């Protein structure tokens, strides 16, 4: 799992609202996985109605017990009949199918019951491959036929962005279709020579495009 550094906990009030980075999971061989809140992110999120994760109520504590076991409950159970399709969609390397830290980062730990998501801070290793969904779609109102699976995308760095100093603007041809999400965008600034590859994996739409899932890779 050399490609994953920390995993950041993000929260937003709802679809189309700004993401706040409210916490971080850190892993090492001696202390295991620890979780703590990020004060600045929490303060901003509280203005939008944020409340702490149920099992981790103390904003000032570093949690060291059962962190991965609790957050790991958000990962699809391996005995489900559709688990292979799930792994294929999220670009899961089969050799890590039992690694909760890896799975949490790569599947974003999404749940229909809350607005939390888990964003891996990736490193530009040679075999890097992960899935992300583009931000800012609600402000762009893209036509349903403007993007389709298989499309090759390009990007530009936008470090002067007031909301994210590591912003990455994404285009199809010369048309902007969104931004790389916070935290996921950091790896684009670490690539020194060859640019990362972007390809549309899936599109959710209903008259207008709701979500665009993009595969990011160094291959």
Topology:
Layout lengths: L3 E8 L8 E9 L3 E6 L1 H8 L20 H5 L11 H7 L10 H8 L8 E7 L6 E5 L3 H4 L11 E7 L8 E6 L2 E5 L17 E10 L1 E10 L2
Antiparallel strand pairs: 1-2, 1-4, 2-3, 5-10, 6-7, 6-9, 7-8, 9-10
Describe the structure.
The protein has 219 residues and is α+β, with helices and mostly antiparallel strands. The chain folds into two domains: 1-122, no CATH class; 128-219, Alpha-Beta Plaits (2-Layer Sandwich), CATH 3.30.70. Helices cover 15% and strands 33% of the residues. The chain is built from five helices and ten strands; from the N terminus they run βββααααββαβββββ. The chain has helices at residues 39-46, 67-71, 83-89, 100-107, 137-140; strands at residues 4-11, 20-28, 32-37, 116-122, 129-133, 152-158, 167-172, 175-179, 197-206, 208-217. The strands form two sheets. A six-stranded antiparallel sheet has the order 5-10-9-6-7-8. It has a four-stranded antiparallel sheet with strand order 3-2-1-4. The protein is globular and about 50 Å long.
* Low-confidence sequence ranges: none
In the sheet with the most strands, the strands line up as 5-10-9-6-7-8
What is the end-to-end distance?
17 Å
Give the helix/strand class: alpha+beta
State the major sheet. 6 strands, antiparallel
Tally of helical runs: 5
Q: What order do the helices and strands follow? A: EEEHHHHEEHEEEEE
Q: What level of helicity do the residues show?
A: 10-25%
- The tally of domains stands at 2
What overall form do the CA principal axes indicate?
globular
Averaging pLDDT over every residue, what do you get? 93
Number of strands: 10
The fraction of residues in strands falls at 25-35%
Rg measurement, Å: 17 Å
